[in-house]
Amino acid sequence: MTSRRLALFDLDHTLLPLDSDYQWADYLARTGRAGDPDEARRQNDDLMDRYNRGELTAEQAAEFMLGLLAAHAPFDLAAWHEAFMAEVIRPSITPAARALVESHLEAGDLCAVVTATNSFVTAPIARAFGIPHLVATDAEVQRGRYTGRILGTPSFKEGKVVRVNDWLAAMGLGLADFPESFFYSDSVNDVPLLEKVTRPIAANPSPTLRAIAQERGWQVIDLFDHVIDAKS
Question: What InterPro entries does UniProt report for this protein, alphabetically (predicted)?
Answer without folding.
Answer: HAD-like_SerB, HAD-like_sf, HAD_hydro_SerB1, HAD_sf
